[in-house]
Amino acid sequence: MSLLALNTSIPHCVKLRYQILLGFFPFGMMLAPMGLIFEALLLSERFFSHFDVNSIGYVTADILISSLLFIGVSLMISGYTIGWVLNSLISRYIFNWETQKIKSVYLKSNLPKHWLNSVGESYEILTRCDSQPLSFKISTFIWGFLFFSIIYAAPTIIREANFSIEVALFNLIIWFIEGSFVSFLVRFFNKIKLQRIQ
């Protein structure tokens, strides 16, 4: 049993239309803070354009940028969480689901059978189906793209700095390696969870 929000079997076992409906609010609200992050970086760029960086120190500038990134990632995680809370509220007050059904679906991933495709015909299959290769690739792409966009691409665009193909490729490789590492951790802990269920 696992939280639906953390269930990596969804892309492999749930029908596409339900994947879209389930992910609309969580991923939409997770990406919404990107605008705030860009605005914060723009404000910091305006600040640095009026003050000599040497006068405030590069360490202070690094702390400011790191703080902005931390706040941005925290807002993205919060948005993802709030999105799933909205899903449960919509299920409760618009679709009139009972509290027990909401707990079963969102807290235990016990999905209605008509949500599942031919692979995930039941909750038993959903929690055990071999979706690791697909989930690993998707997770690696998502994490790698987010890291690359937030930490390298967005600041470079905002500073209006010249793009270097060598530097861009280097950052792309580094952040996708980081994304694969995060995906590996998710896969590892999910495997342990399934072993406990079995």
Number of helical segments with 4 or more residues? 9
List segments where confidence is low: pLDDT < 50 over at least 5 consecutive residues.
122-126, 128-134
Distance between the termini: 11 Å
Over all CA atoms, what is the radius of gyration?
Answer: 20 Å
Q: Give the tally of β-strands.
A: 0
Largest sheet features: none
User: Which structural class is indicated by helix and strand composition?
Assistant: mainly alpha
* Elements, N to C (H/E): HHHHHHHHH
Q: Shape from CA axes?
A: globular
Question: What percentage of the residues does DSSP assign to strands (E)?
Answer: under 5%
Draw up the topology in text:
Blueprint: H1 10-13, H2 16-31, H3 33-50, H4 53-56, H5 58-93, H6 99-108, H7 123-126, H8 132-158, H9 165-197
